[in-house]
Amino acid sequence: MILNGHSTGKRVTSDRKDDCMNPAIQKGKILGYCAEHGSITIRDAFEKLHINSPSKRISELRNSADYVVDDITDYKYNDEGKVDTKFKRYFITRLEGGVS
Fold first, then answer.
1. At residue 70, what are phi and psi to the nearest 5 degrees?
2. Rounded to an integer, what distance in angstroms lies between the CA atom of residue 11 and that of residue 82?
3. What is the pLDDT of residue 15?
4. Phi and psi for 29 in degrees, rounded to 5?
5. Residues 48 and 33: beta-carbon distance below 8 Å
6. 44 with 19: CB under 8 angstroms?
7. Dist CA 39 CA 18 (whole Å)
8. Is pLDDT at 52 greater than 80 in this prediction?
9. CB-hemisphere CA count at 13 Å for 50?
10. Distance CA 83, CA 81 (A)
11. Residue 19 pLDDT
């Protein structure tokens, strides 16, 4: 912990699990992002939503009976028009009648 610009050497902890580490909250962030932007990439989830295990959360949504997760392979091109990066883009849709 920092107090008046000096470290006290004490670590601040909480009994409550941090929201950013809660899988349900992380999945909710992914679903919200998809609702707003139409799709999500692992990089989007990691950099914009600060989710450290986005692949796991997307896999959990895919295995849920409440969601359909489709993906496509997308490409980023360099200035010369050659493929620079290949990545997956995920489209997540809630099934009608789903409970989560």
1. -105, 155
2. 48
3. 43
4. -65, -40
5. yes
6. no
7. 26
8. yes
9. 6
10. 7
11. 60
